[in-house]
Amino acid sequence: MKHPLAFTLNGSPVLGEVEGSKLLLEVLRDHFHLTGTKEGCGKGECGACTVLVDGRPVNSCLFPALEAEGREVTTIEGLPRGTELSAVQQAFVEQGGIQCGFCSPGMILSVQALLDRNPTPSESDIRDALVGNICRCTGYVQIVEAVHAAAGLRRGER
Amino acid sequence: MSEHRFIGREIPRPDAGAKARGAAEYIHDITRPRMLYGKIKFSEHAHARIVNVDASRAERMPGVCAVLTASNTPEVRIGFLRDNFALKKGKVRQFRDEVAAVAAIDPEIAAEAVDAIRVEYEPLPGVFDPREALAEGAPLVHETDPSGKPRADNRVPLTFRHVSGDLPEARRRSAHIVSGQFSVPRIQQSCMGTAGCIAEMDDRGNLTIWAKTQIPFLAQRDFNRALADMGLPGRNSRVIVPALGGGFGTGLDTHAYEYIAILLARATGRPVKILYTREEEFAYLSPRQCAVVSIEQGCDSSGRLTFREIDVLQDNGAYTSWGATYPGVMMLPATSLYRVPAVRFEAQIVYTNNTYCQAMRGYGNPEVTWAIESNLDELAEAAGMDALDIRRLNSNRPGDVTPMGLKIGTCGLPECIDQTAARLGWSEKRGKGRSKRRGVGIASLMHVGGSGRIYRSDASGVIMRLDDFGNVYVYAGGVEMGQGHHAALAVGVAEFVGVRPENVIVNQTDTATCPWDVGTHASRGAFTALSAVALAAAKLRERLFELAAPVYAEELRRALRGHSDIGEIRPGLLDLADGRLFLKDGPLASDPRAPIELGKILRGIHFRPGGNMLTVEAFYDPPSELPDWEKGLGNMSATYAFGTQGVEVEVDEETGDVRILRIVAVHDVGRVLHPQALRGQIYGALAQGIGYGLYEEVRTERGRILNPSFTDYKLPTAGDMSFPIDVAFVETNDPAGPFGAKGVGEPGLVPTAPAIANAICDAIGIRIRDLPITPEKIVAALREKERGALET
Question: How far from B661 is each of B438, B440, B726, B759, CA to CA, in Å?
Fold first, then answer.
């Protein structure tokens, strides 16, 4: 049975009708064609599907779509202003925090949430925030460097 | 320091922006009009006769478009030895055997339909240990070979052997001999993007397949053969490679799921996507080969190595992939890591009813280096030598020809060893941290650094096309799987041609548009592709300057406002850099008006009577030999990569936990092409080496995989990797490599596990010989040591 669903998606109000069993990941990818949100495991283990709900990172592969009712959902597509990358995205590009790129959208959103609540994170703050986002390519070194750089960019340092 | 404009500079990767925006298209993100979703019914037994497949319920389900079994499809043989089938008939030989498949209008219906297929089996006794499988009277995994001839045993018919030097004499000369048996587990490559493909057939029986592959051209050959098996001889396959989501060796073979998608597309006349879930990836995609490596090494009284003998027993699983040829690469460190005058290497590859294995980063090298470098520390101890000194003494040197016939050109190993020791603080720390349960260890590696010839051709082609605006379009057959292949191409093309990296446009790898390339493996991508680019760029520049000379003269006159006294502009006077043509010398060379934008020149060449546009191609096959595997001889690479890694650990003797305090990695990379991507390759390979060393194992019980999830299969996380990693490069400027570079994709993984094991031994005096080094193994070994101490 389908239920109405209204929420804010990347800053714009959206309406939809979804099955009660649908997960936010499926609705974002299949209904809204926001394929930047990746499915890496479908079980909340890898973090590739991370999106922000009211600014907090959630695994959209576990998050019931109807729970998004009335809330603000941000996906990777919601970060750039037009074609201009956000500070976090820019830092990931500049510091080599991206290899195969499959974990990158989820990783970047976890960092976005971290920097929103803590603009000057320590090394261990960063690693704690990223424990739920698995990357097989980078060994996390240039990702952590990117987070430091992003924090600087957001403070207006260059 | 660099005479180059872009080589060796910090330039962001060209593919990173799209990936940061979530705009890169992986197989997961691609759909085709009228596309169906395929799903596979896998075996529920490790070894069983298929008595009956009842698909009638699935066939009647609304939304199901095709249900295939071996009985209603043509036989499609697959695999390196053609011992595997797209869909299995008669019997299943492993838990993951593909018994039936469904195409439906959505993934949910496809999954329900697969569940509705009933398969009746008659279980057969299985073999799950290669030693058991070799025993007389063991059940046969394959009763016949692919030609139908009865098989007598479970040996895989592949021979890898090397014998050199006078072994009996070498043993007599040895003052110290140490032997040991080491083992390495199956591990999952664990690409974050799971496996999948889309197959689409046209009305003439030609195939287009979007495939998660590292070998698009060998895949084209495989798929063309399958089309012939399907009654479509002479039809063609087009292989398009989407953004890969990681490769790590999983793309070196074509897979049953791809052939099943092709069969479903043929049966339905519609595009069919098959996409593995993570659980399917763990349970049904081939992991890294596992092996038992027995080793014996000797040295004389001064510590010089006298001989090395290695026997490898490799559990192939039920079918044969390219990964079965690991011993071909194992031979490289076995015969050639450090100077050893006498070597025997032999590998036995055995069918079992376990999941069949495939390639992963390092391709046999980490397996054997694990044994060599662990055992070398034991040999040093027996000889009363420092573990660093024995490595220094026996290090390879430039100009060496090794027992396998590998011709070592440049060799930075002595420097790698010394730098690692210095950066790690070897002399202050080795043997001095026992009281704090701290220790340091090192291990080195040697790997192919100038491609690795394991096929008739080891080549890469490239096509470069100039447009009207000064952009260079690059068509190359290598695969960007995250390693930075496109970054290497962008800086290499920019440098060789004389344009800016942002004007280099690397096209998606597609067998319909790109020239042939053997595949992206053996750390060869940048080495061979840029070697091809060097050839193509020389042609392009020669042709460009020839066509440009009159156009440049006109443009220069115009720029100088009719100044007609510019003399004759010969092609040899022209040069190109940063996307501008200029005069190399003469009175006008320093005139600021003399450099003219390439696009303007190209338009001048194009838009005139008898106009021209420029496209060039080149094909590079490195000067290497396909080894004779039965003799173990052949110079398989154009050059060789070396490196040393050091680790400092602290071990908790109560819990067995190993804490890495720091890692040092010093690699002879020939020449740094793209520092950011290079560091990324070393860091990432190191992390995989740490997983291999400490955490990862695909656990099985009688052929069934027990831990098919990231909860039960541990990968290194950002939290686990929270220690300093000190990476340094030795630049040996190899004459064989583009700009002097060697391949570096795999080396970081190779010596990581033995360096950790050697550090653990330094910390607590325990030698672990079986990977992964889990806390349980450390605690058990400590208990055994205590018991031994009590008894004596």
Answer: 9, 10, 11, 11
Residues in CB range of B558: below 8 A, 6 or more apart: none
- Cβ of B482 within 8 Å of Cβ of A95? The answer is no
Chain segment B733-761, per-residue pLDDT in tens: 999 999 999 999 999 999 999 999 999 99
- Whether the Cβ atoms of residue A108 and residue A76 lie closer than 8 Å to each other: yes
DSSP characters over B283-351 = HHS--B-EEEEEEEEEE-TTS-EEEEEEEEEEEEESS--GGGGHHHHHHHHHHHSS--S-EEEEEEEEE
Non-local (6+) Cβ contacts of A156 within 8 A are: none
- Number of continuous H segments (helices) and E segments (strands) in chain A: 5, 5
Instruction: Report pLDDT for B1.
Output: 40
Contacts of B172 (CB under 8 A, 6+ apart): none
Closest CA to B693 of B260, B311, B187, B238: B187
A105/B278 Cβ within 8 A: no
B724 chain-A contacts, CB cut-off 8 A: none
Kindly give the residue spans of alpha helices, DSSP state H, lying in B192-239. 216-229
Q: Parallel, antiparallel, or unpaired: how do β-strands B48-54 and B290-299 relate?
A: unpaired
CA angle B89, B92, B93 (to 5 degrees): 135
Residues A102, B277: C-beta atoms closer than 8 Å: no
Closest CB to A45 among B191, B676, B711: B711
What is the percent of chain B where pLDDT is above 90?
A: 97
Digit-coded pLDDT (tens) for B87-104: 999 999 999 999 999 999
CA B412 to the chain's CA centroid:
23
Half-sphere exposure of B184 (CA within 13 A, CB side): 33
What's the rounded Cα separation, in Å, for the pair B370 and B348?
18
Peptide bond into B772 cis (omega under 30): yes
Hunting for tokens 């976090």 — which residue is that? A88
Task: Please tell me which of the candidates B23, B246, B722 has its beta carbon nearest to residue A100.
Answer: B246
Cα→Cα distances B432→B427, B438, B764, Å: 9, 8, 11
d(C-alpha B622, C-alpha B178), whole Å = 38
pLDDT bracket for residue B324 (50, 70, 90): very high
Give the number of other CB atoms < 10 A from CB of residue B608. Answer: 12
Asked if the model's pLDDT at residue B565 lies above 70, the reply is yes
pTM of the entire predicted model: 0.97
Percent of chain B scoring above 70 in pLDDT: 99
Does the beta carbon of B244 lie under 8 angstroms from any beta carbon of chain A? yes
CA distance B567 to B378: 74
Q: Identify the three-state secondary structure at position B605.
A: helix
Asked if the Cβ–Cβ distance from B688 to A136 is below 8 Å, we say: yes
Q: What is the pLDDT of residue B792?
A: 64
| Helix, coil or strand: residue A50 | strand
Closest CA to B41 of B51, B53, B32, B29: B53
Residues 69-128 of chain A whose Cβ lies under 8 A from any Cβ of chain B:
75-77, 79-80, 85, 89-90, 92-96, 98-105, 108, 123-124, 126-128
DSSP of B399-462: T-B-TT--B--S--HHHHHHHHHHHHTHHHHTT--GGGTEEEEEEEEEEESS----SS---EEE
Mean pLDDT of chain A: 97
Tokens 């192939």 -> residue: B316
Q: Chain B residue closest to A30 (CA)?
A: B29
At B787, which helix (H) or strand (E)? helix B775-791
Average pLDDT over residues B274-285: 98
Contacts A136 to B, Cβ<8 Å: 190-192, 246, 248, 684, 687-688, 715
Q: What is the pLDDT of residues B582-634, one digit of tens each?
A: 999 988 899 999 999 999 999 999 999 999 999 999 999 999 999 999 999 99
Minimal-distance CA residue of chain B relative to A138: B684
